[in-house]
Here is the input.
Amino acid sequence: MLTQTQHTPKEMKVVGTSPVRPDGVQKVTGIAQYGADYSLPGMLWSQILRSPHAHANIRSINTAKALALPGVKCVIVGADLPEQPFDYVGPERVAVNYWHMTRNILAREKVLYEGHAVAAVAATTRAIAEQAIKLIEVDYEILPHVIDVDEAMAPDAPLLYADMKTRGVEPAATKPSNVSKRFEFRVGDLEAGFASADEVVEMHFKTAPVHQGYIEPHACLARYGADGQAELWSSSQGHFVVRAYTAKLLGIPLSNLLVHPAEIGGGFGGKTVVYVEPIALELSRRTGHPVKLMMSREDVFKATGPTSGSSMTVKIGVKKDGTIVAADGLFKFQAGAFPGSPVMNATMCCFAPYIIENTRAVGLDVVSNRPKSAAYRAPGSPISAFAVESVLDVLASKIGMDPLKLRLKNAVKAGSPTSWGPKHSHDGYAETIQALLDHPEYNKPLGKNQGRGVASGFWFNGGGESTASVHINEDGTVVIATGSMDVGGSRASMALMAAETLGVPYESVRSTVADTASIGYNHVTGGSRVTFATGMVVVEACNKIIDELRLRAALMWDVDVTGVVWEDGYARPLDSSVGDFEPLSLKAIAAKRAVTGGPIGVESSINAGGNAPGFSTQFCDIEVDPDTGKVTILRFVAAQDVGRAIHPKYVEGQIEGGVVQGIGWALNEEYIYDKNGRLSNAGFLDYRIPVASDLPMIEAVIVEVPNPIHPFGVKGVGEANIVPPMAAMANAIYMATGCRLTELPMSPPKVLAAIDAKHGG
Amino acid sequence: MSKHHVSTVINGDPVEFLCETQQTLLNVLRDDLHMTGTKEGCGTGDCGACSVMVDGRLVCSCLVLGVEANGKSIQTIEGMADGQQLHVLQRKFLEHAALQCGICTPGFLIAARALLERNPDPTEEQVRFWLAGNLCRCTGYNKIIEAVLAAAREMRGA
Amino acid sequence: MELDKNDQGCEMSEIRFETPQTVEAASALLAGSQGLAKILSGGTDLLIQMRSGMSKPEMVIDVKGINEMTSVKIENGGYRFGAAVPCMHLVENKAFAKTWPGVIDGCNWVGSVQVRGRASVGGNVCNASPAADTVPAMIAAGAIASVVGPKGRRDIPVEQIAAGPGKTTLEKGELVTSFYLPERAPRSGDAYIRFTPRSEMDIAVVGCGINLTLDEHGICTHARVSLGAVAERALVVPEAAAALIGTPVDEAALTKLAAAASAAARPIDDKRGTKAFRIKVAGVLARRTAIVALNRAKGIN
Here is the structure.
């Protein structure tokens, strides 16, 4: 693992080490409680009835037989939840529409995908609940369905919404369609740009939808009390967001709902939305008992948001010297049953690593009869990058330029323009490319049927709202709490940053995630924002505590606070003129807290800005079996600029994990539907995520170009690493076989067919 | 409805429970015995999160009926540490950051221990193939493999 | 108008669970059951089918208490192993694995280590998936299944058990109790190779089992070739075997073998593979499997 730093950091004591995380022992002993691990006395079990049809009107639902089954306490359907206004709210990139959201939780007028929730029961045992849903009678009027994004855009395609007219078009759309919105980002003069190019390549791509694949199915425990006060134990990526969504969907004040952050078994974006929480809570409200609701793995595949499948056309022009002069992309993304694919992100990210004077990126958000898409690790960017990074590879080959050098030549840096307005505020991309150019394996010769491919990727990374509290215990140890769910060890990173700021050992800091009643607002754990934004506010709170500790020391010494400094975990006199005082530790100051002002604690909140984007550049070496099309990965090297690695092992882990998700996306993962629009592979047997024996060790190269806005230079690491792998593998397969694959996944039958076609077989 | 009365030994202690025929061992462990350390990831034997040992044999508890536990000895994650003494594998998983969300970790630990009991000096490839039945979506497996190999080294006294 | 009524029955039906101690008792339970009765050996297919509702037995018969079904022993120089012996058990039986490495190849590809800790060859054969991993090598080995039923005991070649996907030729009341593999001729080797998109955990897209014997000059005197996942059940391919017999299993013979294998394959398109892909790969695998079997016959690893 190579580490490059742009600036020489002052010597840090704990940041940059990799200690054991505070929740570690609980997780290796099976004690840690995830969403499905909670119970309460008198608890009821819930099950959901789901549509067997991809598209159908609901004529009627008869729940009488289910209600009559002994042990069943309640059955609810969509109409039992309050109606929501039809309105897109929030920032455009992440807008929500509660009219859609409530219908995804429980269908109303129609079912829009196989697996769409139609009714839910609460019963005294799991078995009775499972039996009860089989007794619910639904009268469906089956409608024709459409799944593929191109087919959904065809003029005679079945419409999911009779009144959906495409937003974002001029003049306004008059006819209904399945295209919910059009986005466009444009700079310069595309025609002139292409006219000036020496080489132009235009290619078409298709990608299949893929699921985040978290091993933990969605689960929660809900309790709604007779006093209107409610609690949820839910594994999510943001318990404040769970509180907001659930309260809105049930029509209750959010202050009446307390959400406890259960440990989460993977999310990758897919658990920033709610599925089971509103249902369980509504059932608890009606029955007066706690309700437990877990999804099965089949339900997870059939009814939770994967990311979009896509159909894309990308055209790029370059000069002989490698300057990219024009780029044009059309990105059509499947939103699933309700609008809201990440196509806007895709249109913004696709050309973002490159300085290109003339670009246009058009995105279309298209609904079709499959589950509503949800965020998946850098949502949208990996998909458009597959297209763009493949085309760049073809161009590099045409002008005889090394593909990394082509990228380096056009790489953005601080001050470079973006297609959506603001300038890039940070360096870092070029450094990731250079890291690979300098890598000892990059020029290693390969053998027969082997190939090497490179690709890069961009992700915005996020800032946003976070809150942290810091308290000094009576014994001088430190407790920090945030409201940021811990998906990958962030409790440890927070403790490292706090320990570094305070100048105390890591072991003296307790790091927790507090519930919604115990800490101020925190936005979701996603967007690669936690180490950045929540880390920032933890440091801010620690700095406030330091001011307070200096004040207490000043009182203890009876000097002015300006005479007290905080250094290496001690209050010290500024100089000998202040007085001859022994340094005071946290323990010493805490011991005197009662007479210096009482308990020592502070809470701090921010809306963090100044977040820096993530760039990742990767190369992979693969070998193709020319007789079966099977691809074996020999080597995968992923460089990512993370600003500063607070906990290097966890940072590596993020890079390694994102790359492997990208490998699965590239080679084998896809949704397979039958002709009735039913999912044929709703399980881990035939939805093929990588297993340990499929892979070599992934090599993570941590590049550190610190972000000056963040006290430790953090840029966030979670997402940018999943953006390049698919194109890197397509480029490698091309080098190995001479075949350019433009459809994902690049599964063996497709690779073999391409090889055979090339050889006239 | 009459249930089966099952007498078994779990992590060295005698345990009795009642269960219906169709209840899996996984359901019994989690729902009736409140031993939630064993996880349900898929319920169909494809992910390994529910791995336990039955009479010294590594199995998916979602593919074993609760009633089959009668007269058998079961080992779950809750019994892996010896009191407050973590098993070497548990320690190595922590040191090597072999977990991110941790949901797959109990299954991996049970499976890895079963490997090292049979083969104290596995190659990386052998570790990968033995653990192919345990899915992890967070780590990409790197640090899990490193942790298992490190544990093997320590257990061998190497 | 479509009224969707889901499944029938609102009663919580109790599933009877039996643990017979002899094969005759097991057979009697099967024969006498009114509703569906299923044998439980490893349970790695049955429990999944019960969970999905694909199988709704009224009685589950756990045969793992029957000695005949769980033992492995030498019989007349050959091996007899119980139909309920877990795959891992066979894999760990060093002597058996040395004698029949191809059968072990098949056992070693079933699911994961966890699944192999329970799954049995008997269950794999009788579940009758066309892609069953243990079947092609067992067929190539000339395995004979011992079947016990109301009319007594009979022996049938293992390739005659499967009738089609999920269906066997067994009569009501019959169960497979053990498999017999004959004594090994010298200079014999067997192998099973399958194609899957990942390296493990997948159902075979194509599988090939080959068993062959060489004479002292290295000429193949006996061969059996079986293909899995390319028809409604595993195939015996005499033309493929004929391509090897009388030859030193050289390049020419392998090419003929591959062609015969591809020609015999009559697969479908499904979520695991296309027709065209399976036909092509059947030939590719046959060649590779024969080479492994040949090397094993020669004592080369």
